[in-house]
Write a structure and sequence with these properties.
alpha/beta, about 170 residues, 5 strands, Rossmann fold, globular
C-alpha cells in the first residue's frame, strides 16, 4: 500500500472529466489510474494547493458541493507548518543549485509563483511521507527532482467499470 499525491490536472481529467483539445484520451487514462490506485488499496492525497487550483474554475454556487465530494473521496491535506518547512528547504536548494529551475525561470517557461505553488505541493507530499506525486506537469517534476519521485500516470489496461464517482 502506497501513499500517492495527485496533482491538479489528473483531478480535472478524472473528476471533472474535462480535457483540452487533443488531451481527451487522458480522461479515460486518469479514471483508470485512480481506479487502479483504489484496487491496490493505495491512499490518495490531494494537497490543499491542488484543491485551490481545482476549484479556480468552479462557480461559487457549486464550490461547497465540489469540495465536499473531493473530501469524501480523497484525503485533502493542508499546507501546514511541516509542509512549509519542506517547501522552504526545497526553494533554497533549488534556487541555489538546480540548473533546471534556473533555466525555466530564465526561459520564461514558468513563473516564480507557479514554481512556488509546485514546491508547496511537493512540501505537502513530503510532510505526509507520500511515496510519489503523480503529475503531468514538467515544472513540478523538475522541482521534485532529488526530493520525491514525481512523474506521469502509468499506462494501464482498461478495467471493468467501477463507477468512479463524479462530484455533482
Amino acid at each position: 500500500m502506497s501513499l500517492i499525491a495527485i496533482d491538479t490536472q489528473i483531478l480535472i481529467w478524472a473528476v471533472k472529466r474535462e480535457a483540452t483539445p487533443g488531451q481527451e484520451p487522458m480522461i479515460e487514462k486518469a479514471t483508470r489510474y485512480l481506479e487502479h490506485l483504489d484496487k491496490c488499496k493505495d491512499q490518495i492525497i490531494i494537497p490543499s494547493v491542488v484543491v485551490s487550483e481545482f476549484l479556480a474554475n468552479v462557480p461559487d454556487e457549486r464550490e461547497a458541493a465540489v469540495l465536499k465530494a473531493l473530501e469524501k473521496r480523497f484525503m485533502v491535506i493542508p499546507f501546514d507548518t511541516l509542509a512549509a518547512v519542506h517547501a522552504a528547504r526545497i526553494w533554497r536548494k533549488n534556487s541555489e543549485g538546480n540548473p533546471s529551475i534556473t533555466e525555466l525561470l530564465k526561459a520564461g517557461s514558468f513563473t516564480k509563483a507557479k514554481i512556488k505553488a509546485d514546491i508547496q505541493i511537493i512540501g505537502t507530499a513530503l510532510a505526509r511521507k507520500a511515496d510519489r506525486i503523480t503529475t503531468h506537469d514538467e515544472g513540478l517534476v523538475k522541482s521534485a527532482t532529488g526530493h520525491i519521485e514525481a512523474g506521469p500516470m502509468p499506462d494501464l489496461p482498461a478495467l471493468p467499470e467501477l463507477g468512479f464517482p463524479r462530484p455533482e
